[in-house]
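Narrative of accomplishments. A recurring question from our advisory board has been how the design workflow behaves on a single, concrete structure rather than in aggregate. To address it, we present the structure tokens for one chain from the evaluation set, followed by the sequence designed for it. No filtering or post-editing was applied between the two.
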């Protein structure tokens, strides 16, 4: 949301229509919600704005009753997607893992994970052109970045739950944590922010550096509208919607009454439409704002199947495992 909140039009609307000036600090979603009440007060925060409904659940579970004027509401959304290049997409399509529905591509994520990634199969086995090495999905560091952690939550659901459309229980999740740690360790060094991670993937070779990369749907839209060179993107980057996927919600957690004004301001029609047309954030306020015709050349999905994020107990167990391997049991 950094670029959105720096946008001169957004700043002007907040100032002129709502008499609001936002001073903010970039911080990972779970770094925010795990701050203590004293930490929040000492930093002078009126609100938190993570990129995850599960982060909100963690905050509410760990701070229950601590803030009498607390209110939270999701104002923006973006689904988790998998970015791929032409060779990777073609190979996964021939293997029956990717299908085309309307304009967009759908990825059988459970089959990819269980049949190819966990067994450490190679791209050469899928005859994927010049692609080499183990099949995996790269991401930002899930300990520090929500797009990476959203991927980890989705992977955990596919591994732990018998039903891929049902979030795992804590018992199911704990049984899968050792495998989750193996997947995390195999990634090596990862970017620490979603924006930087996606830009690095694009500039460092795309599918040749990491054939599959997890991020937000909003990132390719923002890259096309403000990053330039849309023709290159359309030629070299494919967007695959995992079946199921997870919505990355962006809830504002207002600590006091003053911050509740920001919730209402961010639901402003002008801001909501700007967030979609320029930065790719889907509105959670009014579905009519999500006009797909704005991006006629992009193969966007009108609708897709999602799985709910795990509860706070499962989320904290996964986060702790990724931070400390001794807890993965």
């Amino acid at each position: 949301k950094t670029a959105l909140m720096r946008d001169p039009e957004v700043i002007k609307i907040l100032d002129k229509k709502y008499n609001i000036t936002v001073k903010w600090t970039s911080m990972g979603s779970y770094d925010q919600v795990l701050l203590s009440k004293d930490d929040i007060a000492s930093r002078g925060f009126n609100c938190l704005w993570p990129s995850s409904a599960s982060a909100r659940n963690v905050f509410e579970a760990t701070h229950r009753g601590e803030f009498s004027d607390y209110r939270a509401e999701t104002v923006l959304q973006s689904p988790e997607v998998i970015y791929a290049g032409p060779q990777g997409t073609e190979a996964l399509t021939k293997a029956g893992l990717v299908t085309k529905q309307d304009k967009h591509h759908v990825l059988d994520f459970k089959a990819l994970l269980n049949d190819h990634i966990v067994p450490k199969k190679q791209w050469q086995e899928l005859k994927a052109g010049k692609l080499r090495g183990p099949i995996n999905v790269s991401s930002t560091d899930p300990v520090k970045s929500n797009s990476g952690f959203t991927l980890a939550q989705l992977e955990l659901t596919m591994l732990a739950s018998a039903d891929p459309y049902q979030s795992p229980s804590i018992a199911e999740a704990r049984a899968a944590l050792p495998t989750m740690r193996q997947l995390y360790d195999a990634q090596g060094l990862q970017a620490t922010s979603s924006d930087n991670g996606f830009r690095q993937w694009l500039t460092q070779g795309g599918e040749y550096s990491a054939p599959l990369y997890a991020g937000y749907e909003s990132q390719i839209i923002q890259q096309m509208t403000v990053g330039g060179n849309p023709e290159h993107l359309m030629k070299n980057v494919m967007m695959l919607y995992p079946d199921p996927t997870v919505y990355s919600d962006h809830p504002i957690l207002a600590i006091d009454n003053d911050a509740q004004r920001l919730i209402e301001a961010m639901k402003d029609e002008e801001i909501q439409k700007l967030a979609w047309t320029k930065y790719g954030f889907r509105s959670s306020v009014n579905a009519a704002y999500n006009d797909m015709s704005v991006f006629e050349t992009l193969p966007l999905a009108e609708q897709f199947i999602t799985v709910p994020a795990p509860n706070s107990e499962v989320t904290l167990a996964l986060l702790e495992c990724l931070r400390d391997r001794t807890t993965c049991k």
